[in-house]
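WARN  no MSA supplied for this record, continuing single-sequence
INFO  ligand: fructose -6-phosphate
INFO  echoing inputs
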Amino acid sequence: MCGIVGYIGKKQAYPILIKGLKRLEYRGYDSAGVALLTDDNELKIYKTKGKVADLEAYSADKDISGTVGIAHTRWATHGEPNSTNAHPHISASGNLAIIHNGIIENYAVLKKQLCEYGVEFKSNTDTEVLVQLIDHIRVTHNVDLLTSVRLALRSVIGAYAIAILDKTDPNQIIAARKSSPLVVGIGDDEFFIGSDASPIIEYTNKVIYLDDGDIAVIRRDQEVKIVDFDNEENFRDIKEVELNLAQIEKDGFPHFMLKEIFEQPSCLKDCMRGRVNAETNKILLSAVIDHRDALINPRRIIIVACGTSWHAGLIGKQLIESFCKIPVEVEYASEFRYSNPVINNQDIVIAISQSGETADTLAAVELAKSKGAFIYGICNAIGSSIPRTTDTGSYIHVGPEIGVASTKAFTGQVTVLTMLALTLAEARGTIKHHEYTKIVKELMAIPDKMEELLKVNDKIKEISKVFTYAHNFLYLGRGYNYPVALEGALKLKEISYIHAEGYPAAEMKHGPIALIDEEMPVVVIATKNALYEKVVNNIQEIKARNARVLAIVSKDDEVVSKMADAYVELPETVECLEPMLATIPLQLIAYHVAVCKGKDVDRPRNLAKSVTVE
Ligand code: F6R
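INFO  complex generated
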């Protein structure tokens, strides 16, 4: 949801900023721009509609000198994605340039006031209002930049991570955050700013994660100073980021998405490392050890999440209800936050979020917290906002996910939910010892089974060519595999732009069956579990309507594999762990169909990785 990057130091800023933008492009790619204070102390702004590569082409023949600059890649909220609305935005005096990630909710009121003072606007963005306001305060009150930023931010309602460059002071960048992430990197005689650490780690692993309400004054040759709106100093620790460059590069794969699909076996090992003991077959989750009393006997659990994370939550519900016998509700965070939910201090709210920054999930957490619920976070991005707000939680530890379509985060989330359900069930005495041990052993075997399953990639590539023609897809599954069907459909639609619906298989005849004809492929997860026979009947109903069926079946299946037009066999596992395997072929189908259609897999249109606005 917009990526921001900044540099001040002794090196040329432009190449660092462009490289940083490329690393942040997963956050938005409607337009890109850069502001530089050049060697001649000119404030130069280059911006263009499109991706960072378009910005590079646009500025190829321009003056890109300078050792201080800020840059932005946009996911449009206010104002269409054109070069006028692209960031950076400049103030009326021509002295200030700003980049912004977030939304200024009261921008219309502020803009009206500024217009009455005679300020003229060039763009339709909320961001320009902010830079005009800061400049207006600075000029009319004759105060320094920090003071005008502080005063301006006091009157702003909304979410922001901003960085400001001042033509009259080439030795300084001012940055601030509220509800949108912002990291300051501390190098040798140089500083970096990033929406996350990915544009920074190539240069330094020392970072400061700004907190809400922080304003950072970043000056050449001085320590970073952080103050609040009242100019009181806030002292923040310098942290070491455990991220390496290889994790954020494609490593020979054509797309991040494919790399991340193939990384899943090793990611899940990382997720289980130190938590699942192969000798004792026991799971130890530090969050449960530390907060046993709060976690063991809740009245109920409510899972809040969005998108793919919500699908993982649906699997979590089945795991927790069947093993722990605790009632679980799964809510879209965006609905939950406005639903005036009845919650109290006997409830646990589990917030699932890859980025840890999703605005709706964060707001749901804050609401639940205000009502006294105990909050457990399941996140991937270390140090992000949600884990910092929750009472406890477990990171999924799958490493940075850069492809916009979530893949390894989903299987990581399901792994953590499985570990959590088993741990709570054991502590509550609601699971038999042999069942617990069996599932733990099977869980440890999942990475190797995934590795084996990934060999099906070439076959799926071939199958996908046949299915690329379709305009609509149906995905069906039951029980634990129903959320997998939803997830498969979401993957396909978000990267190939083919309409796809996920449905519980038996619901098909209550409506969607009307859509089925020879033009509509149906993907069915038909593994040999308790509901197998019923799914077989559904497949017969589909075949009777001449649709093509792609089936995900258990190893050595002889019934569905004969009925289906194409099939993929899954290695055997226990029913509750099937989603982790069944999702792999569906990720690959979505990937290969999108590639066949020539789509930009890692940067699908209209999407952004981290949805930090409502
Ligand atoms: C789908 C996808 C999105 C995210 C959703 C929540 O591939 O990536 O649906 O799952 O935006 O994001 P997080 O998990 O970061 O809260």
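The pocket of fructose -6-phosphate is lined by residues 306-309, 353-355, 358, 361, 405-406, 490, 494, 610-611 (CB under 6 Å).
INFO  checksum written, moving to next record
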